[in-house]
């Protein structure tokens, strides 16, 4: 260390005092961006967001199977937009909570782990400015990764499968342009619930002061909400859960779009964002920034408190799952299946070269019952679709029964699959001799649960 | 216009559950003053520095830094205040230079080349691009000083700044502190290295159990200190013992290994050396064992073993330790 000629560093160029608040927040934001971009886990995640959709599409390309359980899954060989939407569906279940955990779950806890709160809090930024900068940086990275995943999944789908139109959730074939618009809108609508998870991860990070709890917490919550979605028949808790926003956009994919669930889940996401950030700030501003031997409680106290509180909240939500009106009912499912079956049948007829004018209707009577229990709520249903087909001979109409196994989600979206005896196999040959997806083999649909 | 005090803390109280770490503490550090903060482990020095940095909130009392009342963490009152509490901490996955760049960003505009300048100043230019995770304790300490220098400080709060440094590094820090003080930078130094403090401090505060037990200038301390103690090696130790016993304010004895330990009150050392010369006893070596500051420190704030010991006792203990080390 030199002790020679001493000139106070920087004394030749004193700083301008009194930076504006936005400048200080921006400085905190920039430093957090730098820190996040330097972390290996975050870099790897960006890489996964970029390469994952490409790898997924390439894998689908070289095999005949399809992820049929996911909405639009049977169409991944038919439309590039289906590829992007399937990727989005998986991301909503696991990917986005993971992204939120990695970008925000360790942001505050790492300052405790590295003992650096005292380093940054003794500079020229307040705790509030640092808090804001951290949240903005985490949000920037999370939304950036969503954009990367969206662009890469779209590119992969369009390059490897093509920009053909998508069969929507009412069984109608949409144009390529409309499919693109709906796909882009769906990804955009994931931003709010993603930010809700980011806020939750930040809350875990602040409250637990433990990076593992912060990173894993959102994923555990995603798993818990998936389980809660399987139980309980009431509408309210399911619509208000933190991840519900990832399903709100499917109402846009129906012949008669419904916005109620989308609006409510988006508002719920906003409430989660405000609530989590508010709680995180209250905890952060009340704490002392002790370190090392001065820390009073053992390091596992705070994480344990967070885990206990989270368990209680999840348990309460699970118990409250029956609150509110029942969204999944037999009449609603009957109406949705009947309409989707009608539209898919007409689409099938067009594919094999028969004329089916727009708006044509078959005489269809669906009867849906939930397996093993009362006919309401999400789960496995059995739907008998009775189709009255015109006959040329003595009996004017022949009643034919098509049996569908229907898996209904909490948000009113379902997948109906039938044995191939009546409707044929998963693929069929169109009038040009090409192998195409049989729209009746698996029917996807959504109905309004409100 | 009167100069604004660098630090004014009044009636500070900080409790941690049942423990009162700081108990009604008052502290004033003048502008451009190098002020030593002394106390045994657990006396409350680090808690006081945390309070001064706003990292923890006092239960009572007030703090003014450079004339501005301190709020919470990151308060505007911390502008032009720099330093560190406990060991300096950085992001281990970033390089030293990147860590400084990040901190400079939080501070606002950074003059071009300032980061390179402070890195060179603390001798870390060669390792500037290396990750801090690979730094030694001493290197992190130097990086902490570099980070403090980035802020154009008018007040430096340093907690054990020479900890982990080799003797040359510690000397350089001492020199740096003095030179900064020459530029009207006030420095509050907390250290166990009493010898290091003695070289640089203008004033001292000794705390014990969270309370100030002594506060004053270096001159006042020397005047009020119980004394100092030396190891004395002469051409005739027996004769030297007899001479020392006759001089007021001087106490001499032999260590278990036979070396002479002499404790003296302020001004008595000269009388002893002159008397030895008059008696034709040659002083071959006179080694400071316990300085006035150390004797004051041990008298006021020592741990249970040292509390109330006279300089002579401390000198004998130091001699005994030196003997066992040898």
What does this structure look like?
The complex is a heterodimer of chains A (450) and B (326). By secondary structure, chain A is of the alpha+beta class. Chain A has 2 domains: 21-322, no CATH class; 330-446, no CATH class. Chain A has helices spanning 21-37, 40-61, 80-104, 109-113, 117-121, 127-160, 176-189, 191-208, 211-230, 235-240, 260-286, 301-319, 330-351, 420-423; strands at residues 363-370, 379-390, 397-408, 413-417, 427-429, 435-437, 442-446. Chain A has a 5-stranded antiparallel beta sheet with strand order 1-2-3-4-7, with helices on one face. The longest helix of chain A has 34 residues, at 127-160. Residues 3-16 of chain A have low confidence and may be disordered. With 326 residues, chain B is an alpha/beta fold. In chain B, the strands form 3 sheets. Chain B has a 6-stranded mixed beta sheet with strand order 6-7-8-3-9-10, sandwiched between helices. In chain B, strands 2-1-4-5 form a 4-stranded antiparallel beta sheet, covered by helices on one side. A 4-stranded antiparallel beta sheet of chain B has the order 12-13-11-14, sandwiched between helices. Chain B starts with 6 loop residues before the first strand and ends with a helix. Residues 322-326 of chain B have low confidence and may be disordered.
